[in-house]
Design brief:
alpha/beta; single chain; 7 strands; 7 helices; 249 residues
């Protein structure tokens, strides 16, 4: 199997499950040494590390809550200290909180935490990583089809976080282009084993709105991320790659 990422160091935020874990596995299979973050389940994170090690690759899990933006510089320092550098950053960590803007019982604390995790936390990690990313580095930000089109009620705050990081990533592409560092977005869609799914009726409607009429698998979205991390995508920056089954078609 080709290993186009041999000699590269990658950091995947939120890498202990779902899309994050699939991305950790694929980048490691392609030759990268992979660091990833988790928040609560050390056992789950260690299982991913053990799986990667079992295939002869290197991985290490760092406990880090992205909602605490002050932790970002220390996280990047720890990754560099452990692996000797950083070439690829995958901003995957995110949470989802739903609720209409006029809901009198809205959990505003949970909504604020979502904004801190999905938006401010991503910015903090990008800022810290940008100072150490090596020439030719890659930044891939995982967004959602909701970053382009909301499509259902109760998703205004979540969609805002995704739209925000998409525009931020476009600016990053401009700022870091002179260093030959690319910055791109992957808009992910409904996934098996992803975030907590909506109620069955809403899920049925959402799947029915897709061109492919099915949920995606984390491995399918991870493949899009790996493409943008690869040498093949060396002239792709400031782009949004849709991997959501045709949600916007």
């Amino acid at each position: 199997m080709s290993k186009p990422l041999t000699g590269k160091v990658a950091l995947v935020t939120g890498g202990s499950r779902g899309l994050g874990a699939a991305t950790v596995r694929l980048l490691a299979e392609q030759g990268a040494d992979v660091a990833f973050t988790y928040v609560s389940s050390a056992k789950q994170a260690q299982a991913v590390v053990d799986e990667v090690h079992g295939k002869g690759a290197k991985a290490f899990a760092f406990r880090s809550d992205q909602a605490d933006t002050s932790r970002a510089p220390a996280l990047i320092d720890d990754v560099v200290a452990h692996f000797g550098g950083l070439d690829i950053l995958v901003n995957n960590a995110a949470i989802s909180v739903a609720g209409t803007v006029d809901d009198p019982d809205a959990d505003t604390a949970a909504l604020d935490r979502m904004h801190a995790t999905n938006y401010l936390g991503v910015i903090a990690v990008i800022r810290a990583a940008s100072r150490v990313l090596r020439t030719g580095g890659r930044i891939i930000t995982v967004s959602s089809g909701l970053g382009s089109r909301v499509g259902a009620p109760g998703l205004a705050d979540y969609a805002a976080t995704k739209s925000g990081i998409e525009r931020y990533t476009m600016g990053v592409a401009r700022d870091l282009g002179p260093r030959n560092i690319t910055a791109n977005v992957v808009e992910a869609g409904l996934m098996e084993g992803g975030m907590e799914p909506p109620d069955p009726e809403t899920l049925k409607v959402l799947v029915g709105s897709l061109s492919l009429q099915r949920m995606g698998h984390p491995d399918e979205i991870a493949a899009a991320i790996a493409f943008l991390a690869s040498p093949t995508a060396s002239y792709v920056t400031g782009a949004v790659l849709d991997a959501h089954g045709g949600y916007n078609a």
